[in-house]
Write a structure and sequence with these properties.
It is found in: Cytoplasm, Cytosol. The protein is elongated and about 80 Å long. 39% of the residues lie in helices and 17% in strands. The chain binds cytidine-5'-triphosphate and ribulose-5-phosphate (5RP).
C-alpha cells in the first residue's frame, strides 16, 4: 500500500457543472427511495484499475494519462466518482513507474479520498490488489472494510451517480440469475468464481463507454466541451436598457437557444457574480460599454482564480467592445485594447482563455444587426471550441 498523497488544497464544490449528475440531496432522496424501509445504507468503496499500457491506443503514454483538454483522462474518472459523496474510499491501481505521476495528478487536481496500490500484470490482478487494500486486515492501511466495492475502469470517465447507485443497490439486494452466470462479464465471473457471492447484471448507459482507441479521446474531449459550454454568463457594465449590449444578449440567446445565458452586473457592483461563480459557469462574455481598459476583466479573472473554477476546466472569457462610429478616436482605443495580448498570456497560465471581440457599431440598422449576428457566432465558436491558440486575439465582427 502506497502512502496517501499530500493533503489537497481547499476543494471545489462537489456537484460540478460539467456533468448531469444529481446533487447530493437528490441522491439522498433517491437512495431513501431505493432502500427498503428499515435498511441502512451499505458502506461503499471503489476500485479503479489503471495499470494498463493502452496498446490499442497506439501512443507511448498509457491512455488513462493521456490529456483531454490538457487534463489527464483518469482525473475526469476520479472526479466522476469522488463527487458521489457516499463512496467512502477510492482505490486506484497504477504501475510502479506511474505511481509518482499519479500522485502529482491527485495533488494538482485536488482529488480526495484516493488511495494508491500497485497494479498487477493483468486487469484482474490490478483489481485484486485494490480489493486486498480494502480487506481491512492490512497493517498500515487506514481504509476500513466496505460492504460493497464498485469496480470501475479508470478509462470510463462519464459514469453517472444513478448507475452507480443501481449497481450498489443491486449488489445489496439481488441474487444471481442463471442468465448472469452464463453471459456475465469478466468481473462478474471473477466474483462468482473466487468470491462465492451472488451477483446481478445491471444495465448501464451508453455514456459508460470505454476510451480504447485514439478516436475515443477526441470523442471524450467533445463531450466534455459540450457539457461545460451549456451556460454563459454575460457581464454588462451598464444598466441602460437601450444599450446595444442588450441587443447582443438577445442575438446570443437566439443563436444559442439550447444554452442558458445569464446576465450579470460587473464585479464591483456586488454579489451578483459571487452567485454565478457558485453555479460553476465556465464561459464569460464581458460587454464593456463604459471603458476600453481591462479593469473589469481583471476583477473577473481574480474572482475566477479565487473560486478555483479553472483548476478542472479551461474557462473562456471574451471581452467585447463596440466600435462606435461616434466614440473616441479608433487608434486611441486600439492602443488600449492591444494590451489584451500580454494580459491574456498571463491568465492563460491559470487556465483562463481570454480573447477580445470588437463589434462594429454602424448607424445603419441592417449593418448593425449583421455585426451583432457575426459577434454572436464568434462568441459561440470561442466558447464551444475552447481553442487556446486564439488566446489574446482581438477578433472583429
Ligand atoms: N494490467 C492491467 C491492465 C489493465 N488495467 C486497467 O483496466 C482498464 C480496462 O482495460 P483496457 O481498456 O483493456 O486497458 P489496457 O489494457 O491499458 O488497453 P489495451 O488492451 O489496449 O492495452 C484500464 O483502466 C486499464 O488501465 C489494469 O489496471 N491493469
Ligand atoms: O473493458 C474491459 C477491459 O477491456 C473490462 O474487462 C470490462 O469493463 C469488464 O467489465 P466488468 O468489470 O463489468 O466485468
Amino acid at each position: 500500500m502506497e502512502p496517501r498523497p499530500a493533503a489537497p488544497r481547499p476543494r471545489l464544490c462537489d456537484s460540478l457543472g460539467a456533468d448531469q449528475t444529481p446533487s447530493a440531496s437528490t441522491l439522498n432522496a433517491a437512495r431513501a427511495e431505493a432502500r427498503p424501509a428499515g435498511r441502512r445504507a451499505p458502506a461503499v468503496a471503489a476500485v479503479l484499475p489503471a495499470g494498463g499500457s493502452g496498446e490499442r491506443m497506439g501512443v507511448p503514454t498509457p491512455k488513462q494519462f493521456c490529456p483531454v483538454l490538457e487534463r489527464p483522462l483518469i482525473s475526469y474518472t476520479l472526479q466522476a466518482l469522488e463527487r458521489v459523496c457516499w463512496i467512502k474510499d477510492i482505490v486506484v491501481a497504477v504501475t510502479g513507474e506511474n505511481m509518482e505521476a499519479m500522485k502529482g495528478i491527485i495533488q494538482k487536481y485536488q482529488h480526495q479520498r484516493i488511495s494508491l496500490v500497485e497494479a498487477g500484470v493483468t486487469r484482474h490482478r490490478s483489481i485484486f490488489n485494490g480489493l486486498k487494500a480494502l480487506a481491512g486486515d492490512q497493517p498500515d492501511s487506514k481504509l476500513s472494510k466496505p460492504e460493497v466495492v464498485i469496480i470501475h475502469d479508470a478509462v470510463r470517465p462519464f459514469v453517472e451517480e444513478d448507475v452507480l447507485l443501481k449497481v450498489v443497490t443491486a449488489a445489496k439486494e439481488y441474487g444471481c440469475s442463471d442468465y448472469d452466470l452464463e453471459f456475465g462479464t469478466e468481473c462478474l465471473q471473477l466474483a462468482l468464481k473466487y468470491g462465492h457471492i451472488k451477483a446481478k447484471l445491471v444495465e448501464g448507459s451508453p455514456d459508460l463507454w470505454k476510451v480504447t482507441y485514439k478516436r475515443d479521446l477526441y470523442a471524450a474531449e467533445s463531450i466534455i466541451k459540450e457539457r461545460i459550454s451549456q451556460h454563459i454568463c454575460l457581464v454588462m457594465d451598464t444598466k441602460d436598457e437601450n444599450h446595444v449590449g442588450h441587443r447582443l444578449e438577445e442575438v446570443l440567446k437566439d443563436e444559442l437557444n439550447h444554452v442558458k445565458v445569464t446576465s450579470r452586473l460587473p464585479c464591483h457592483t456586488g454579489r451578483d457574480l459571487d452567485q454565478i461563480m457558485s453555479e460553476q459557469c465556465y464561459s464569460y462574455v464581458c460587454v464593456n460599454v463604459m471603458t476600453s481598459d481591462f479593469e473589469e476583466i481583471r476583477k473577473l479573472v481574480d474572482m475566477l482564480e479565487e473560486s478555483n473554477l479553472s483548476i478542472l476546466y479551461p474557462v473562456v472569457v471574451i471581452s467585447v467592445y463596440f466600435l462606435d462610429y461616434k466614440s473616441v478616436p479608433f487608434d486611441q482605443k486600439m492602443e488600449n485594447l492591444m494590451q489584451i495580448r500580454e494580459y491574456a498570456k498571463e491568465v492563460k497560465k491559470r487556465n483562463i482563455l481570454l480573447c477580445g471581440l470588437l463589434i462594429y457599431y454602424p448607424q445603419d440598422e441592417h449593418k448593425l444587426q449583421e455585426s451583432l449576428r457575426q459577434g454572436a457566432t464568434i462568441i459561440a465558436t470561442l466558447i464551444k471550441e475552447r481553442n487556446s491558440g486564439l488566446v489574446g486575439q482581438l477578433l472583429v465582427a
